[in-house]
Fold this protein.
Amino acid sequence: MAKHDKLILKMFAKVLMRRIGNIQFTYKTRKLSSKPRLAIVGSGPAGMFACNGLLRKSNFLVDVFEYSPVPFGLVRYGVAPDHQEVKNVINTFDAMFEKNRERLRLYCNVKIGQDITFDELTRGYDAVLLAYGSYKARKLGVPGCDSKNVISGSDFVGWYNGVPNAPTPDLSASNVVIVGNGNVALDCARVLSTASSGSLRISDIPDERLSVLEKTATKDIKILGRRGPENVSFTIKELREQFKIQEWDSKLEISETDLKNLIESLPKLERKKKRLTEVLVKNTGTTSGLRQCHFLFHRVPKEVVADSNGMVRELVVENTETSKTETFPCELLIYSIGYETLVLDGVPQNENKMIDMKDHCRVNMNAECPAHVYATGWCAHGPRGVIVDTQQQSSFVADQIASDFIHTRHSIAPGVDLVLNERKVPFISWDAWKMIDQQERDQGKLSGKIREKFTTFEKFLSKRLE
Ligand SMILES: Cc1cc2nc3c(=O)[nH]c(=O)nc-3n(C[C@H](O)[C@H](O)[C@H](O)COP(=O)(O)OP(=O)(O)OC[C@H]3O[C@@H](n4cnc5c(N)ncnc54)[C@H](O)[C@@H]3O)c2cc1C
């Protein structure tokens, strides 16, 4: 071997050793010096759409890390159970995993930042895509807000969607107040308003949680916005659904000034906002009847009043339109006022406490970082938008990664299998998930449901060992 070749070999070995640390050369499933490798953090729509695009455009090997015991993020644990057509997006992700078994792997029940650090990911992969959503609900932050039966919309949604080991709220309340003017508030109101009709029986709400929901005593729901009706973040489909619920009278109870402003704004609005505003205008009035849902505006929560057992009983608000204080009876308080984006340790943060982005999808890493780092979806752009918006962003990021690696044919990135094995992280693979999936579907069929979700961590983990 020529001296020059030896030198190159030595340098290559040095880089290799630095990169893989004490890796043993018994790596079973994939050889070193293989195709470029990508780690995706989060298996929600953002990560999965990007993954789908990238697999079609490149020769990447992809490992997906998911904190929950099962995949697909808010599609499983957020989207409402009466919106199964939205959840059908899972079929696309399913087909992607099945078609790409050779180069796509899933590691559920693995929390990046805890089981594996972000730094370890950047050393194990050529590229890392952050798609871990925005998963911490913003707190109400008023005196008494820690009272019993005061819960965030995401906790309530997670509970009825079967998040494992989620605490059960007390639904014996007849007066419910929901703070927030987005779709999550509408989902919570709709599920509470329709549960007792039995219409959710065929959905995928777990039996034990459905039986609690079906017995709900809710007769009065107030949906509060801190600003005026022109500022709502509802989408038209969800809004219309609330007004159509049988046996419920749902109305916007607004001042004459607000109504006049809404009507006058109509000619100036773009089409989507105009249609939404027309629905708002059409459904103004005063509610009556046995079951009522009031949309109230300009109400700013000031205090939660609890009884001697610490259970919520009233919500005190300031009406900023009349400058008066009002007190609403309330035995269940749900707040949905947005999410905080958490930035993983080691990921750069900007002054807004968001991931520091260099452009629309690349993270502003320092020059020493061994991997290219990208971010997409709610963790990158904030908790806004529906799945279609997320899909568009993810298609951009897939294009960007494919183009950044267009000339990369080989890789010495080792992945993190050895670290996972050493730490005995009980991850749930794609095959284990498919067993769970099948069992949930089979169990659901017995009672005419889409699926009967597992609701305890223990049950998920026991499947992993079968
Ligand atoms: C209650 C609710 C209802 C909705 N309903 C609809 C609807 O009907 N239609 C619609 O189009 N859109 C709906 N949306 C919006 C839609 O869910 C989002 O647009 C979309 O899920 C955002 O995708 P994402 O992948 O960025 O985040 P997510 O879906 O939240 O996925 C992020 C994933 O990352 C995982 N993760 C987080 N931290 C880590 C970590 N440290 N390590 C590993 N994994 C991690 C999470 O567990 C999660 O699975 C709804 C949203 C909510 C909150």
Notes: Residues 298 and 322 are 9 Å apart (CA to CA). The domain at 3-134+342-427 is CATH 3.40.50.720 (Rossmann fold). The pocket of flavin-adenine dinucleotide is lined by residues 41-47, 65-68, 73-74, 78-80, 83, 86, 111-113, 131-133, 135, 157, 184, 187, 377-378, 385-387, 390 (CB under 6 Å).
